[in-house]
Amino acid sequence: MTPSWIDSMLTARIYDLEQPRFAGMPIHPAHRPGYFYALHRRHRDTFLPNQHGPRSSASGALTMMEHSGTHLDALCHQANELRLFGGLPVDNEETPAGFKHLGVETVPPLVSRGVLLDVCGHKGQSVLPAKYGITADDLTSCARTQGVEVPPGRVLLVRTGYGALWCGEEQVYLDAAGVSKSGTLWAAERGVIAVGADNMAWDVPGERDPDTGATLFGHLHLLTEKGIYILENLNLEDLARDRCWQFAFLAAPLKFRGATGSPLRPLALV
Amino acid sequence: MTPSWIDSMLTARIYDLEQPRFAGMPIHPAHRPGYFYALHRRHRDTFLPNQHGPRSSASGALTMMEHSGTHLDALCHQANELRLFGGLPVDNEETPAGFKHLGVETVPPLVSRGVLLDVCGHKGQSVLPAKYGITADDLTSCARTQGVEVPPGRVLLVRTGYGALWCGEEQVYLDAAGVSKSGTLWAAERGVIAVGADNMAWDVPGERDPDTGATLFGHLHLLTEKGIYILENLNLEDLARDRCWQFAFLAAPLKFRGATGSPLRPLALV
Amino acid sequence: MTPSWIDSMLTARIYDLEQPRFAGMPIHPAHRPGYFYALHRRHRDTFLPNQHGPRSSASGALTMMEHSGTHLDALCHQANELRLFGGLPVDNEETPAGFKHLGVETVPPLVSRGVLLDVCGHKGQSVLPAKYGITADDLTSCARTQGVEVPPGRVLLVRTGYGALWCGEEQVYLDAAGVSKSGTLWAAERGVIAVGADNMAWDVPGERDPDTGATLFGHLHLLTEKGIYILENLNLEDLARDRCWQFAFLAAPLKFRGATGSPLRPLALV
Amino acid sequence: MTPSWIDSMLTARIYDLEQPRFAGMPIHPAHRPGYFYALHRRHRDTFLPNQHGPRSSASGALTMMEHSGTHLDALCHQANELRLFGGLPVDNEETPAGFKHLGVETVPPLVSRGVLLDVCGHKGQSVLPAKYGITADDLTSCARTQGVEVPPGRVLLVRTGYGALWCGEEQVYLDAAGVSKSGTLWAAERGVIAVGADNMAWDVPGERDPDTGATLFGHLHLLTEKGIYILENLNLEDLARDRCWQFAFLAAPLKFRGATGSPLRPLALV
Fold first, then answer.
1. Which DSSP state fits B128?
2. Please, where are the H alpha helices in C132-180?
3. What is the DSSP string of D21-43?
4. Please, which residues have CB within 8 angstroms of residue B96's CB and are 6 or more apart in sequence?
């Protein structure tokens, strides 16, 4: 009665693209203090047999920036000359509790096809050089070698190799390679619905667009002009190891009303 | 090259089972203060053309209990006579930063088939009476009428109708109908991997197991004895409206290391 | 060698004017979620004899609004036509981390004389009627009966009686009596350096200045025009019981850089 | 009518012994993430002339450990063989919301005489060597040179010189000099009611009591055996500059129910 594709999906191999979350994981300086979990109620606290029988309960409290760990950037996260995607002036949109429009609660579940371009592997490296800028040529060449294309509607994932360093020195991770302006334009021209990388910010840390002076050109172009979401801090190691370049991509950002992003746990299924 | 079932999946209808998240949404008294989002950096704060060109960035900070909004309970959330699932004594497992084992980071992505039993609709009501306890007979009768079965490995969702009241009076929502002991046993016997409902706690508020004196019998039985996850505060209204009883079920709790639960955005695809 | 007044001070009777702080204490709706303390590290967590010998340590985490509990309002807390005290336009002053000027870190320690006007007692009531507005006449009459004056430089405390209801029903406390416009003007004309009351907001809840339409006239007038600090949620019960109308007043707001207020524990010494 | 000593107090010179509080100030590793303030409501958000007239309001949210910045340690902060001061077993005392006894809300306002021993200045240094342990002999010799005694009931402050480095490199501050075991015993024998220093922890970082193996011997001895409070992260620079060795000491920890410490703003008056 239910569709037969579900049976196939149930036998698919699942790749978990989320990095683990813990106090001490790398955090972008703009998003400190980042992440903190405190176990609050413990089992002995609530073990009251007269009240609850043999049952007890434990729980905790999270303090976290919405841009901590593996996450998605909502469109309202960035502005261009103080206008959001679609031209909305920021001054009309900001409230203490978040944005009136384009908050992360407006992002649909991402249920699509995904493509991985393993630029790091393509170049025969275990990790790209610090602050290396992945160019359009890198992406073209990598796609050709892998034998894949990036048609419209895809989620495009790019591997720098820094995902393997998530639990290491924070500064090394913060200085990761990223996607340069030409690489971002290449992705946008292909009509992808989202891009992602295994680094802190998709973009190359510190790179500046010579035309506008913008830092984080990808953030500016993708979020404010193209309406393309950005996924950050992905773990692409297993996909790369298995040379899995194409897959079903599933990710569902949480609907924090008005927030500028959301942690998520993206999955690739093959 | 990629599996053909993905094409079918891409044309599926997607049901979003997550309730919106906002300060003021219903919170279980044990999990106050619940949820708070503060927009922190605003666009004008970071609009510094000399430094960043035309680009500016906004972001915020979340304070939230892991059991706020639509969420999944990890196995360590409950204990039975101070032992977790598998018999682990709680005293060895708790740390300030969370549990050593059975934390929510150990929950695999839920990629499975799901079944909805719309008990509320089956009884011809828009919402079940406050604190009504859904019995095994209710579930059997509902399944028969709907023409569905609940084989092992499924995610079983039960509708009380209270999901429609998420944005209303908190106390009304807290006093929702739930699944009684017999209903929980019925579900567990079927070998489901997770259960969920459109109320705060799956269980009937205030109900007590006559045998052990336990409150929240479902929490006790499912999490500590059966290893079955519980999903809470689901929105099942659209599924019920469309009489969509069987579907692909997708949900991916975040890997908060050591935490006792995680917010998530479950999806049903048909 | 050290001044002899200190000896006298050491024998003074000390009145503690701070209300206790706990989750569930009354919070102004604008300052929710208000206050939350989670014990985080517990002694057994850090009891590691090989590492620390017999010593262990416990500590917790606070989430709180700076306007929770007994606290002082800094001048930047209020604006008049979008200008702070001294005419500073708000747009130049706000940053994600707080105000550039007039933050609570600029408030000097309050070491002065204080005067209590027990309007509630003067009227022979245990608590003033809900939302009663204390007028200039009330203050004049109360001061005359008590035989006190309010010269420049004093801290003026006004008792409504609601301090006794701190641990009771939140809504009753939120609907407390307060100081009306004429009462605020009376205080300001006397050149006091700070005012305070045993209610949530000094002002009368809901009262509107007929001239400007301003709510919370006292906040507007005292903080943005006069540079007079406001103390809220004081406990004045013991002072009143002992008919202690004049005293040394000591209070030291914390220097949270850029914040709009600070919790404090004011003392009266006689 | 009011005591004449108050007039003298009002003309006293006030020394502010609190360090400024800001994100990025030094935090003990055990108390991370430490301190965070987010401006939340801004003036334009609440500037609604139809509702509030010309008045607007701004406020923020604090996330902080109670042991951040200048603060006092409550007795429950430490345990000795899992017993608190007075022999209370920790297991009976801990709750999710804090300690049942000996929480910081039980600390009386500190209104007393204080003595500063400027060991750093006494040794002719601008700052003591990293991890230098101040001995009983150092304190005796310093007191003799300064011509002061430390009678019972005093608050004893010891200067290492590291208070001047509060806004500098965190690691330098964390490696400050401190008071060694013999220095702690010297202080305790004198019957002081509280001790304090211009470093993170009073004690010498890393020092171990040869008898019990305890780290932070001062914490263990003073809090669990003697009931003497500890003040940390003081700013003693101005007192030392003015060679002000004796003074009235005033400090009032906040009454966070059940918490293990409190930020405060201590004052010295002469």
1. P
2. 136-146, 170-174
3. B-TTS---GGGTT-EEEEEEE-H
4. A38, A39, C40, C41, C42, C45
**Cβ contact C95–B36 (<8 Å):** no
What residue in C sits closest to D98 (Cα-Cα)?
A: C39
Residue B191 DSSP label:
T
Residue A3 has a pLDDT of 78
Amino acid in position B192: V
Q: Report chain A (270 residues): mean pLDDT per 10 consecutive residues.
A: 84 97 97 96 97 97 97 98 98 97 98 98 98 98 98 98 98 98 98 98 96 97 98 98 98 98 98
**Contacts of D15 by beta carbon, 8 Å cutoff, 6+ apart:** D238, D239, D242, D244, D247, D267, D268, D269, D270
Closest CA to C39 of B94, B223, B62, D69: B94
Which H or E run includes A57?
strand A55-57
Q: Could you report the per-residue pLDDT of C159-208, keeping only the tens digit for each?
A: 999 999 999 999 999 999 999 999 999 999 999 999 999 999 999 999 99
Q: For residue C38, list chain A residues with Cβ-Cβ distance below 8 A.
A: 38, 40, 60-61
For residue B103, give the 3-state DSSP assignment: coil
* Phi/psi at A230 (5° precision): -120, 135
Q: What's the distance, CA A66 to chain centroid?
A: 11
Q: What is the DSSP string of B6-33?
A: HHHHHTS-EEE-BPPB-TTS---GGGTT
- Amino acid identity for residue A54 in this structure: P
Residues 6+ apart with CB under 8 A from D89: D82, D83
Per-residue pLDDT of chain D (270 residues; tens, 9 = 90+): 567 899 999 999 999 999 999 999 999 999 999 999 999 999 999 999 999 999 999 999 999 999 999 999 999 999 999 999 999 999 999 999 999 999 999 999 999 999 999 999 999 999 999 999 999 999 999 999 999 999 999 999 999 999 999 999 999 999 999 999 999 999 999 999 999 999 999 999 999 999 999 999 999 999 999 999 999 999 999 999 999 999 999 999 999 999 999 999 999 999
Residues of D in contact with B39 (CB under 8 A): 40
Cα distance between residue C143 and residue B81, in whole Å: 63
Q: What is the pLDDT of residue C3?
A: 78
Give the whole-angstrom CA distance, residue B77 versus residue A77. Answer: 34
Average pLDDT, chain A: 97
CA separation for the pair B230, B222 (Å, rounded): 8
| Chain centre distance of CA B30 | 16
With CA atoms as reference, the chain D residue closest to B45 would be: D39
Of A25, A37, A45, which to mutate for an interface test with D (greatest number of D Cβ within 10 Å)? A45
Contact between C73 and C264 (Cβ < 8 Å): no
Helices (H), ranges, A117-236: 119-122, 136-146, 170-174, 181-189, 217-218
Spell out the residues 6+ positions from residue A56 whose beta carbon is closer than 8 angstroms to its own: A43, A44, A45, A46, A47, A48, B78, B79, B82, B90
Residue C70: closest CA among chain D residues belongs to which residue?
D254
Whether B165 has its CB under 8 Å from any CB of chain A: the answer is no
Q: What pLDDT band is residue B4 in, cutting at 50, 70 and 90?
A: confident
Nearest-Cα distance to chain A for C47, in Å, is 17
The pLDDT of residue D1 is 53
As to burial, measured by CB atoms within 10 angstroms (0-12 exposed, 13-18 middle, 19+ buried), residue D171 is exposed
The whole-angstrom separation of Cα C71 and Cα C75 is 13
Which residues of chain C carry a pLDDT beneath 50? none
What's the CA gap between D181 and C116, in Å, rounded? Answer: 47
Nearest to D183 by CA among D213, D143, D154, D145: D143
Chain A within 8 Å of D29 (Cβ-Cβ)?
no
- The residue in chain C having the minimum alpha-carbon distance to the alpha carbon of residue B58 is C96
